[in-house]
Amino acid sequence: NGGSLHRHLRRCHKKRRKQRRLGVIRSMIRDRVSIHERPDIVATRGRIGDWEGDTVMGAQGKGAVVTLVERKSRLLLAGVLPGKAAKPLSYKANRLLKRLPKAWRQTLTLDNGTEFAGFKKIEAATGIKVYFADPYASWQRGLNENTNGLLRQYFPKGCDFRAVSDRALAKAVDEINNRPRKCLNFRTPNEVRKNPSGALSTGI
């Protein structure tokens, strides 16, 4: 009604924006494996090592960030990209994932953006198995979408990621990973990373 209360919401939207579908299904990435072939244990959050991946875009032509979120611990990994090209994204994702123990690299679920066309390189470099969500089914990667919203509090839409340093991004990621979560029995993702054997909830 012309007020400003929406500015206090996490994403600052006046109302939920209706998704426009132009009647064209996004082209499928070659050799993709559907989320419906993913092991059932991933949906239950019954183990550490299952990830969701996405990109957070800056203003047009002004870079992006690749985000990877572990489903059970809610741990966020992120890296600055020059754009949406597949090759630099695969390289950055590999660097992020290879820092983790092998047990933390089980599966990775992505959307169908062309920036993920090099997923085979991620599989070969990290040993992780990549699956793809259905087109226009963002709820299948709901944790990633929510976490991207947290990152947007630091880097609002329209920002220039080319001007964001690795250090600035790492600081924001560290703050997000050190926020206690009710779904983790008020532990932080970083605490779970250090001691994954502690009791965890499986709720979203």
Give a description of the structure.
- The chain has 6 helices and 5 strands, in the order αβββαβαβααα.
- By secondary structure, the chain is of the alpha/beta class.
- It has a 5-stranded mixed sheet with strand order 3-2-1-4-5, with helices on both faces.
- Strand 1 and strand 2 form a beta hairpin.
- Helix 2 (86-98) packs parallel to helix 3.
- The two termini are 32 Å apart.
Keywords for this entry:
single chain, 204 residues, alpha/beta, five-stranded mixed beta sheet, 6 helices, 27% helix
Order of helices and strands: HEEEHEHEHHH
Largest sheet: 5 strands, mixed
Number of helices: 6
Q: Which percent range fits the helix content?
A: 25-40%
Uncertain segments are 21-25
Give the C-alpha Rg: 17 Å
Q: What is the structural class?
A: alpha/beta
Mean pLDDT: 90
Write the layout of secondary structure elements.
Blueprint: H1 40-44, E1 50-57, E2 64-70, E3 76-81, H2 86-98, E4 107-110, H3 119-126, E5 129-132, H4 142-152, H5 166-177, H6 189-194
Parallel strand pairs: 1-4, 4-5
Antiparallel strand pairs: 1-2, 2-3
Helix pairs in contact: 2-3
